[in-house]
């Protein structure tokens, strides 16, 4: 019992830490504490003895707990109390076991003395000679038992004294180490904050900032500095290269004129011709944002006027910890959450948001070189994360059978369809067809874990992209997203990991690295770097940028091996031409902070449309109520929909059991617009579009759709 429970004096309880335990006869036990006395009767002497032993142990434990609580009060902060190390826990357990051993020692001594007295009394009685010999033999055995027990008790007492002495030393050493660790953490955090402040002040100082994206070197070259930072001293550069997460290669900006004259003298693993790198003959565009927008928007002007705003997000307060404290370690999709944590879009609509920069794929169609096309595909794969930088709210979990269509065939040349094909684990199938020459499909399963301080979101499944004219088939997978400061502080999201994009026709590859944010890194936050290489491993382009702002591409004209770092890794030095912007993020609409930080595309995703399927996410009532600002009604409707889905699942499980009993096969849930097939490229079983949706929409025949809302 806890101290609070022991102090609680309701009828039927007694504080064992101050109680007296006595025995009246062979079956009765007396518990007394002040003016309160309890008489307990056992069925036999053996049962009485078991109760007495258990009560003695419980009393010793209660005394120990009371002493520990009085000793520990006010010694530590609540945060450190909950953060005890494994060694401290081991010492606590050892101390508890030693206390139990000490109690057993006292009980053995007590009962052994009583047994000895009883045997002595029997020996003094006048009994037949045969009985006297047997009693004498028992007495001798009892004496041996007492001697052995005393020896064991003495050894245990010595061990107890030794353990207590060392335990106190360990406790003091542990406490000292804990205090040192806390002081070190506070010092490091303070230094990191000061470092960031100084860095920001240095960047804002006159003469140190630059509007260019890199530093043009002399003919010898210099290390390209991202975001226009001033070049470092030699000592600092060496220190930076020796960092644990330092890049595996160094990019050096070459002088095009110099290389045009001496190109025939270049040597190395990879060489290129600068003459190929010009705006007139390449699909690549300049880094000027205005020309970029003009070139991309002339033929993409919407023919239908879409909405540009939604109702502002209500300012409802909510105790986050009261809900999340029971969710640690659980699968996020199995936790019932109020809409207060959501944004008024479903996961199917968030998946469709990957198409915001679809024009990158339209440009990739025009590329004659597969490695050049790979650059656009890589930029497209990074652009899908740009909308997540401020989007820390959770999308609605789609109901099983829920669909979402985005028909932009007349405006942008593509039409997209998503369907929730599994509920546990949650999985969504996605298919996009573009009349401009490409098709994209994927099946994504979201695995997520709440870790207490942060939330990890791990998309599982491959993304396929095929270009119709060339037959180039690209496959890649998403990186892990992490939402930090779940309990305390401002929520922020980060992307980390690596993406390997493979062209399964030409065997070209692009390895992209998403660098996780770190207090101590001198890199630009949210940095992405990568190299595009052909089937022979020859590097052609260097990709660089950030996943929330832009991606650039630099053509490699020469590569060589640099010096070996302190970790023993040899870096590759790439000499490149000036970088060109492939993708730049569109600015957010006005008042975006009050509209869940939605982009222009996201604002239109839940806009009501006619002729969509009855399972479309736009028709989901709880999501529509939340978008309108009626959150209380949305919570009620969300619970109704989830309970309806549970009832359908229970019915399906009952049908499966019935089929099993009858010896029949039960197929389970079958997706409506997708079917499971083994992918010829990856060998995985995935859901692919089987057709029929757009034909059903033309006929307005939705008779096959389930009633999920």
TrEMBL record:
Region (Disordered): 65-87, 203-237, 254-309
Record-linked InterPro entries: OSBP_sf, Oxysterol-bd, Oxysterol-bd_CS, PH-like_dom_sf, PH_domain
Source taxon at top rank: Eukaryota
Organism listed in the record: Thinocorus orbignyianus
Biased composition (Polar residues): 284-295
GO process annotations (BP): lipid transport
Gene: Osbp2
Location relative to the cell: Membrane
Stored Gene3D superfamilies: 2.40.160.120, Pleckstrin-homology domain (PH domain)/Phosphotyrosine-binding domain (PTB)
GO MF, any single term: cholesterol binding
Annotated Low complexity bias: 209-222
Family (UniProt): Belongs to the OSBP family.
Topology within the bilayer: Peripheral membrane protein
Domain annotation PH: ranges: 1-60
Descriptive protein name: Oxysterol-binding protein
Alphabetized UniProt keyword annotations: Coiled coil, Lipid transport, Lipid-binding, Membrane, Phosphoprotein, Transport
GO cellular component entries: cytosol; perinuclear endoplasmic reticulum; plasma membrane
């Amino acid at each position: 019992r806890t101290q609070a429970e022991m102090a609680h004096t309701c009828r039927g309880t007694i504080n064992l830490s101050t109680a007296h335990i006595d025995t009246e006869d062979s079956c009765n036990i007396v518990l007394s504490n002040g003016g309160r006395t309890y008489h307990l009767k056992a069925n036999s002497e053996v049962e009485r003895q078991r109760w007495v032993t258990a009560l003695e142990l419980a009393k010793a434990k209660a005394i120990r707990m009371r002493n520990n609580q009085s000793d520990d009060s006010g010694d530590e902060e609540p945060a450190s109390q909950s953060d005890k190390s494994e060694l401290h826990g081991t010492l606590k357990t050892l101390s508890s076991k030693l206390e139990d051993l000490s109690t057993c020692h006292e009980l053995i001594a007590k009962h052994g003395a009583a047994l000895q007295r009883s045997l002595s009394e029997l020996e003094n009685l006048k009994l037949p000679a045969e009985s006297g010999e047997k009693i004498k033999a028992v007495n001798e055995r009892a004496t041996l038992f007492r001697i052995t027990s005393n020896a064991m008790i003495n050894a245990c007492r010595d061990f107890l004294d030794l353990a207590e002495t060392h335990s106190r030393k360990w406790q003091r050493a542990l406490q000292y180490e804990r205090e040192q660790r806390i002081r070190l953490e506070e010092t490091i955090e303070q230094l990191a904050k000061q470092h960031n402040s100084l860095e920001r002040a240095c960047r804002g100082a006159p003469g140190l900032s630059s509007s260019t994206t890199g530093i043009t070197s002399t003919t010898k070259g210099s290390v390209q500095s991202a975001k226009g930072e001033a070049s470092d001293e030699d000592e600092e550069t060496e220190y930076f290269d020796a960092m644990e997460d330092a890049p595996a290669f160094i990019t050096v900006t070459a002088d095009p004129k110099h290389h045009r004259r001496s190109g025939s003298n270049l040597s190395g693993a990879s060489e290129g011709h600068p003459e190929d790198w010009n705006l007139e003959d390449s699909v690549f565009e300049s880094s000027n944002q205005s020309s970029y927008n003009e070139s991309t928007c002339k033929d993409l002007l919407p023919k239908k006027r879409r909405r540009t705003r939604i109702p502002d997000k209500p300012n409802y307060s909510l105790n986050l910890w009261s809900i999340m404290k029971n969710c640690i370690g659980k699968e996020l999709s199995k936790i019932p959450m109020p809409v207060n944590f959501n944004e008024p879009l479903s996961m199917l609509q968030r998946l469709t948001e990957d198409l915001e920069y679809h024009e990158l794929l339209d440009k990739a169609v025009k590329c004659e070189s597969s490695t050049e096309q790979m650059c656009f595909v890589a930029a497209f794969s990074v652009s899908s994360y740009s909308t997540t930088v401020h989007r820390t709210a959770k999308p609605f979990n789609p109901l099983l059978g829920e669909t979402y269509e985005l028909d932009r065939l007349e405006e942008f040349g593509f039409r997209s369809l998503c369907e929730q094909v599994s509920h546990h684990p949650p999985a969504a199938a996605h298919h996009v067809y573009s009349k401009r020459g490409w098709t994209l499909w994927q099946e994504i399963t979201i695995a997520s874990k709440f870790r207490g301080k942060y939330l990890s979101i791990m998309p599982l499944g491959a993304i396929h992209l095929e270009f119709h004219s060339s037959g180039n088939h690209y496959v890649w997978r998403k990186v892990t997203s992490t939402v930090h400061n779940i309990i305390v502080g401002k929520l922020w999201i980060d992307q980390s990991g690596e993406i390997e994009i493979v062209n399964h026709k030409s065997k070209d590859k692009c390895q992209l690295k998403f660098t996780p944010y770190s207090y101590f890194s001198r890199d630009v936050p949210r940095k992405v770097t990568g190299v595009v290489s052909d089937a022979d491993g020859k590097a052609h382009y260097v990709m660089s940028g950030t996943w929330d702002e832009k991606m650039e591409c630099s053509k490699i004209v020469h590569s060589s091996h640099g010096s070996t770092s302190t970790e023993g890794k040899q870096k590759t030095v790439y000499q490149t031409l000036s970088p060109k912007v492939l993708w730049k993020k569109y600015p957010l609409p006005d008042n975006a902070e009050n509209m869940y930080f939605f982009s222009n595309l996201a604002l239109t995703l839940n806009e009501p449309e006619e002729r969509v399927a009855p399972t479309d996410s736009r028709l989901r009532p709880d999501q529509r109520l939340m978008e309108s600002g009626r959150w209380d009604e949305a919570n009620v409707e969300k619970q109704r929909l989830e309970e309806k889905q549970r009832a359908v699942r229970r019915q399906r499980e009952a049908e499966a059991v019935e089929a099993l009993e009858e010896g029949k096969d039960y197929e389970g849930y079958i997706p409506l617009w997708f079917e499971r097939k083994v992918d010829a490229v990856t060998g995985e079983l995935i859901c692919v579009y089987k057709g029929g949706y757009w034909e059903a929409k033309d006929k307005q025949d939705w008779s096959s759709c389930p009633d999920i809302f």
